[in-house]
Every structure is written in structure tokens, then in C-alpha cells.
Design brief:
By secondary structure, the protein is an alpha/beta fold. The protein has one domain. Helix content is 55%, strand content 10%. The chain contains 20 helices and 8 strands. The strands form 2 sheets. The protein has a 4-stranded parallel sheet, sandwiched between helices. Strands 6-5-7-8 form a 4-stranded parallel sheet, with helices on both faces. Helix 8 packs parallel to helix 10 and helix 12 runs parallel beside helix 14. The longest helix has 24 residues. The structure holds Double cubane cluster (BJ8).
Length: 429
């Protein structure tokens, strides 16, 4: 990230996007240092990690330049905060789909002027990034899509909409038949709106291609999940999380090819029994809220305690990659139905009841041979805090120990987290 700061062409681009250059320089400086300490300091990393380092170093540089070039050619950029926004449709309309969730504290104090203090760090962060003029993805977006998931987000979008027009998708709260019908109408409404924004029309061919591109990306990430079941673990949890995070920013076809290459390398490692951590290192699974870039605090603390993370049950993890869209549909109607079915399987804690998640968490923990689970909730996140209790019970029934962590983006609790995690890891050894 440090390299991008010195590039004058990038600075000009950021200026055009009306970023606050000084604040942005400071952010990139801090992130560069953070990345160096957490990522570049790892030993025995994969060669394929060069791709991850490059994407991260240019995430506000070359990738934003690519977005500007695409926009100059008439393509549109859609920014979203939730994995419920159907990427297949965005791709079918030749638009670019990017994630806008933010994982840094910068700007959070400004956000507190618009939303209550006891709001989760993820929400404060995206509002703060807008107010502090720090996010080039947000400033490049032609359409920003919010959604009715948790109460915190729903109400925050009302405030956010005053800063920047925000299109809201109504995500149902149950998995009933009526909810399914509502979601289908919302998917169709999104499609119609994006057709207007892009000036293009959906065709069966384009939608099929969009479905295949999104599925291929998910398949590459599924491959990664499967390879991590090997013992010793062939890749660190930090790098695997980074791969999932990058999946929200990079061009999907390039990303898929690079991750498949990286998985080839992992396969060789697994075959030669080579691991990133010793074979007897406790294997932990993370479960809970999504971890947006650059929220690497907890994985770093966990992996510094001698454990290795072998899976993430979150929207920046398997919750977003587990299910594919059926590819057999030939008409737009059939394909939309397949998209609706796939998205209704997402087991976000905003649904009630949400028993599927309990089954999915225990199944994943067993599949990837986790010795224990760390449940991660952001402070003030009601949906995941409630479910932490249920997940604990479900895991206990399977004899899998769980530690529940509640934290935010600040570094103040690092020592306290270390103590708790080290004690948990010791019980697993
Ligand atoms: S589908 S998990 S991406 S809503 S952490 S903002 S829930 S108070 S992020 Fe999510 Fe979509 Fe669900 Fe996934 Fe609210 Fe909790 Fe904050 Fe959260």
C-alpha cells in the first residue's frame, strides 16, 4: 500500500474522486504497516501469495484505475454492503460489482454524529469512510445498494441516503414461501433498476454468463475450503481470509484463475505433507460476523497463539461460497428462479428462525476437522450475539468447544483477547 502513495497518477485520480488526500495518505500508511506486520512477516508463505500482496498494495491504486477506465467505456460500478445483492445480475449487465463494507476505525468518530454510538463497527466504518472521504470504491460507484438486514444497517441507510443516494433491497427476515415470493420480486426490481442505470437489457445469454462467472469464483473458493481440511494446514487462516476479502474487489475472472493457481500450489503442498503450521497445532474455525478489509486483528491474535485457522463461517467465507446457482436454466425466468433459490439459502443471523446455520456450522467444523470454534461478534451486533449462544449449544452437542468473542475494530482489547485466546488454545492442546 505504501507504494501506491508515491504514484502521482494515482494521487490525481484520488483527487478527482474528491478523496481527502492527507487523511487517505495517513490511512494507507497505517494499513501498509499493519499489512507488513500481519502478512509479510509470515514464514513459508505460498508463492501465490504474491498475487494477494499485489492486489492489496494496489487496491486503491490500479484497481481503481481499472474502474475509471471501465466507466470511461460506459460500464457502471455497483457498490454493495451485503452478499444478498445478486452479483450474477450485475455481471450480466456488464457492470462491476464491488464490496463497500469497511473494516477500519478511520472516520468512526464522524459517523457517531449521524448514528448512535452503540452501532457495530462495520456500519460506523462505512459511514465514517464516506464522511472522511476515504473510500475510492464508494466514490466510484454509480449505484449503491443497501438492504434491510439487521436493524443497525436498515436505520443507518436512512442516514447514509442523505449523504449519497442509496438503493435499498428488501431482504426478508424468514424463509417462508411468502418471503421467497418477496425476495423474487426484489431480485426482479434490482434487475429492472440496474437495466435503467446501465442502459442495457438482460438476455438469457448474458445472465447465463453472469451465473457461470459467479459460480466459477465460488467453486475456486470451495476448492480452497476443501484443501484446508488437510493436516497439517497448508495455508494460514490470515491468507485464506485475505483471499475471501479480495474476492469482493478484484475482477472475478482474473481472481478465479489466480485462486485456482494458488490451489494447485496448495494441492502440491498437501501431497508432500507440507504445512504452514506444525501438524499438532490446534485447528480453529472462525464463525460469525463478516471481517471486511483490513479487519485482521482477531486472526492475527489467534495465529500468534500457536493455533491455525482452518475455516471461516462468515459472509467473507463459506456463507458466501457454499451454495451455487443452478446452471441448467435456459430462460431469464428460470435463471432468476435459480438465483432466488440460491440466495434464500444464505443463513444470515438476520433470519428468524435460522436453524440451518446451526447445522451448517457444525457440519463445516467437522468437515475441516476443527478442534475448536471461535465465535466472533462485533460489539452491538444483536443478530450474531444472540446466535453465539445457540451455536455454542449446537457445537457442545457435537463435543466441539467454542469461545465467544465480542470485539470491534480498535486495538485496545488486543492484550485481553490474547489472554483469552491463549487460554482457550491451551485447553485444546
Ligand atoms: S448476509 S451477515 S453481509 S447482513 S455485524 S451490520 S449484522 S450489526 S454484516 Fe451481513 Fe448481509 Fe447478513 Fe452477511 Fe448488522 Fe451485525 Fe453489524 Fe452485520
Amino acid at each position: 500500500m505504501g507504494g501506491a502513495v508515491s504514484d502521482s497518477a494515482h494521487r490525481e485520480m484520488w483527487e478527482k474522486l474528491d478523496l481527502d488526500l492527507n487523511a487517505h495518505d495517513a490511512l494507507l500508511g497505517v494499513l501498509g504497516k499493519f499489512y507488513g506486520d500481519i502478512y509479510l512477516s509470515q514464514e513459508n508463505r505460498l508463492q501465490g501469495a504474491e498475487y494477494l500482496d499485489f492486489v492489496l498494495s494496489e487496491i486503491h491504486g490500479l484497481r481503481i484505475k481499472e474502474l475509471q477506465e471501465a466507466k470511461a467505456e460506459g460500464r457502471k460500478v455497483v457498490g454493495s454492503f451485503c452478499v444478498f445483492v445478486p452479483e450474477e445480475i450485475t455481471l450480466a449487465l456488464d457492470a462491476i460489482h464491488v464490496g463497500l463494507c469497511a473494516g477500519a476505525e478511520a472516520g468512526s468518530d464522524l459517523a457517531e454524529q449521524l448514528i448512535p454510538r452503540n452501532t457495530c463497527a462495520l456500519i460506523k466504518s462505512f459511514i465514517g469512510f464516506k464522511l472522511a472521504k476515504l473510500c475510492p470504491f464508494l466514490e466510484s460507484s454509480d449505484m449503491i445498494v443497501g438492504e434491510t438486514t439487521c436493524d443497525g444497517k436498515k436505520k443507518a441507510y436512512e442516514a447514509f441516503n442523505e449523504l449519497v443516494p442509496t438503493y435499498i433491497m428488501e431482504v426478508p427476515q424468514t424463509k417462508s414461501k411468502a418471503a421467497h415470493t418477496l425476495w423474487k420480486s426484489e431480485v426482479l426490481r434490482y434487475m429492472a433498476e440496474l437495466e435503467k442505470v446501465t442502459g442495457r437489457t438482460i438476455t438469457p445469454e448474458k445472465l447465463k454468463k453472469g451465473i457461470r462467472t459467479a459460480n466459477a469464483k465460488r467453486r475456486a473458493l470451495q476448492r480452497l475450503t476443501t484443501l484446508r481440511a488437510a493436516s497439517p494446514a497448508p495455508i494460514s487462516g490470515r491468507d485464506a481470509l485475505l483471499i475471501n476479502q479480495i474476492s469482493f474487489y478484484d475482477e472475478p475472472v482474473r481472481f478465479t484463475a489466480k485462486i485456482n493457481e494458488l490451489c494447485d500450489e496448495l494441492e502440491n503442498r498437501v501431497e508432500s505433507n507440507e504445512g504452514i503450521a506444525p501438524e499438532n497445532a490446534p485447528r480453529l474455525m472462525l464463525s460469525g460476523c463478516p471481517m471486511a478489509v483490513p479487519n485482521w486483528k482477531l486472526p492475527y491474535v489467534i495465529e500468534s497463539s500457536g493455533a491455525v485457522i482452518v475455516g471461516e463461517e462468515s459472509c467473507i467465507g463459506t456463507r458466501n461460497t457454499r451454495d451455487l446457482v443452478d446452471e441448467s436454466g435456459e430462460t431469464v425466468e428460470d435463471m432468476i428462479d435459480a438465483i432466488v433459490d440460491r440466495y434464500m439459502k444464505i443463513d444470515c443471523a438476520c433470519f428468524t428462525p435460522n436453524d440451518d446455520r446451526l447445522e451448517n456450522v457444525t457440519a463445516l467444523a467437522k468437515d475441516i476437522k476443527a478442534d475448536g470454534v471461535i465465535h466472533y461478534s462485533l460489539l452491538f451486533c444483536q443478530p450474531y450475539l444472540h446466535e453465539a449462544l445457540k451455536v455454542d449449544k449446537a457445537l457442545q452437542a457435537e463435543g466441539i468447544p467454542m469461545l465467544s468473542i465480542e470485539t470491534d475494530y480498535s486495538m485496545e482489547d488486543v492484550e485481553q483477547l490474547k489472554t483469552r485466546i491463549e487460554a482457550f488454545v491451551e485447553t485444546l492442546e
